[in-house]
Amino acid sequence: MNYLLAGISLGFAAGISPGPLLTLVITRTLERGLGAGLRVAVAPLLTDLPIILIAVTFFAVLPPLLENILTVAGAIFVLYLAWEILRDARHAQLTTAAPATGAASADLWRGMLVNFLSPHPWLFWIGVAAPLLTSAWQTSTWAALGFLAGFYALLVGSKVLAALGVASGRRFLDDAWYRRLLIASGLLLAFFGIALLWQTVT
User: Fold this and answer.
1) Which of 53, 59, 124, 181 is the most exposed place for a label (fewest CB within 10 A)?
2) Contacts of 150 (CB under 8 A, 6+ apart)
3) Is 3 helix (H, G, I), strand (E, B) or coil?
4) Does this model's pTM top 0.90?
């Protein structure tokens, strides 16, 4: 039970923390509707396994060079997404049409790349979660599974709730406000991208 509560607490804190993935969930929900936001929200479920395996194996230290490479790659991708959103925001129009299969796949891949290339999940797992998961595993398999279940239920669940909230308010927007919100989202993503780059020089 203690490990389940630890997972829930950490998952909630990580899920509601402002960052590129949460911003992308909100932006994609604005652009394409609830389905797109949900596809981005579940990205950690698809990308965290290699992060967890590496973190549990080498949780004592993350090589600085690897951290810098991840940070720069993540920053470049986030800045690219920001540029794309700002480029399209000027003529964007609200639509209720279902996205094409390719667009749906692109939403998921964007979320996966943002999560995998961001240094934050790596640092979180190596510095905080991997020692807890290792301790839980040594206690029992059920303790480890409880920790993971609590963590991902709240990590993904909080982002799903964000997508639901944005989707429910989307119908009250007109095109002008929609474009303003897209510009704000693009600028916020750009801020996160620049902040990631700043980490490599400080």
Assistant:
1) 53
2) 3, 4, 5, 6, 7, 8, 11
3) helix
4) no
